[in-house]
């Protein structure tokens, strides 16, 4: 029997970015730009989101983006140096970005992680989930954390560390109430600035990549602090099939599609 397919759909996601100090920014109305470190979302791409963040009195900043033909100043919502993120993925299938591609490309996409090689052999990586800031505002919208090049290794390392904490949680939760394994979205992944590093060949640049802020020792009190709300769990279950479809499509996208679809480039350039 041939059967009959059902069209699978994907949801639009809010693009979340991180500036590692290479980007420069200023307060709205300010005169001088200075290196900026922190998470941000572009203003003007989602009217509903803009309304909610404005009502919550989230500050805005102006970031100077280097584009072809000159610089462009774009307003962003300033989310601060640290966030809590509920990643909707079954987790990395390899320890490196290169290992996540090739023969593992299908498994990586099935895990809900988007990875591909971009121009100049620079990797691009993205993962979708829920931002705790928005969850607290009862805005249950998918957020896509997007990075490229060496920041792909940084994001992968954060996800690997999150997997470590999920495995620890397996032994700390009440199995009579939660018989299944603890999946990635059930715990908040805290992300924030790591140590300064020198990146580049020859002439280097000082950057501050983000990292997982999970402690080395995990106990029950900590798991309670980062345990997901019920709304996140239900949303993740509903969104999971679409996220797998999105990750498969992400891996196949050509670099040129970012321009034609007006997909914003992450402000980190390494």
Walk me through this protein's architecture.
- With 270 residues, this protein is an alpha+beta fold.
- It has a domain of 180 residues.
- Helix content is 29%, strand content 30%.
- Strands 1, 2, 3, 4, 5, 6, 7, 8, 9 and 12 form a ten-stranded mixed beta sheet that branches.
- The longest helix has 23 residues.
- It starts with 13 loop residues before the first strand and ends in a 10-residue tail after the last helix.
- The C terminus is likely disordered.
Question: What is the strand and helix layout of this fold?
Answer:
Layout: E1 14-27, E2 34-42, H1 47-55, E3 60-67, E4 70-80, E5 83-87, H2 97-100, H3 105-110, E6 113-117, E7 123-131, H4 132-136, E8 143-148, H5 150-170, E9 189-193, E10 197-199, E11 205-207, E12 210-212, H6 220-226, H7 230-252, H8 257-260
Strand content: 25-35%
Shape: globular
Low-confidence stretches: 256-270
Alpha-carbon Rg, integer: 19 Å
Helix % is 25-40%
Separate helix tally: 8
Tally of strands: 12
Structural class call reads alpha+beta
Q: How far is it from the N-terminal to the C-terminal residue, by CA?
A: 50 Å
Mean pLDDT: 90
Element order, helices and strands?
EEHEEEHHEEHEHEEEEHHH
Main beta-sheet strand count, sense and barrel state: 10 strands, mixed
Short description:
By secondary structure, this protein is an alpha+beta fold. Helices cover 29% and strands 30% of the residues.
């Amino acid at each position: 029997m041939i059967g009959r397919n059902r069209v699978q759909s994907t949801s639009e996601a809010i693009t979340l970015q991180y500036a590692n100090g290479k980007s420069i920014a200023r307060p709205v109305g300010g005169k001088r730009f200075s290196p900026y470190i922190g998470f941000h979302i572009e203003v003007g791409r989602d009217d509903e989101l803009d309304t909610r963040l404005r009502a919550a009195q989230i500050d805005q900043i102006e970031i100077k983006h280097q584009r072809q033909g000159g610089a462009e100043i774009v307003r962003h919502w300033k989310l601060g140096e640290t966030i809590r993120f509920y990643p909707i993925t079954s987790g990395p299938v390899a320890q490196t970005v290169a290992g996540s591609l090739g023969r593992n490309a299908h498994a990586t996409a099935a895990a809900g992680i988007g990875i591909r090689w971009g121009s100049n052999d620079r990797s691009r990586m993205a993962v979708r989930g829920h931002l705790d800031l928005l969850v607290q505002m009862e805005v249950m919208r998918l957020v896509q954390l997007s990075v490229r090049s060496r920041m792909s290794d940084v994001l992968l390392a954060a996800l690997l560390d999150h997997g470590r904490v999920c495995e620890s949680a397996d032994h700390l939760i009440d199995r009579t109430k939660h018989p299944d394994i603890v999946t990635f979205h059930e715990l908040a992944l805290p992300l924030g600035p790591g140590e300064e590093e020198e990146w580049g060949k020859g002439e280097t640049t000082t950057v501050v990549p983000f990292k997982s802020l999970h402690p080395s020792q995990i106990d029950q009190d900590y798991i309670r602090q980062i345990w997901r709300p019920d709304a996140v769990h239900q949303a993740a279950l509903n969104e999971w099939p679409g996220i797998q479809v999105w990750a498969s499509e992400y891996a196949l996208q050509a670099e040129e599609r970012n321009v034609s679809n007006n997909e914003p480039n992450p402000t980190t350039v390494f």
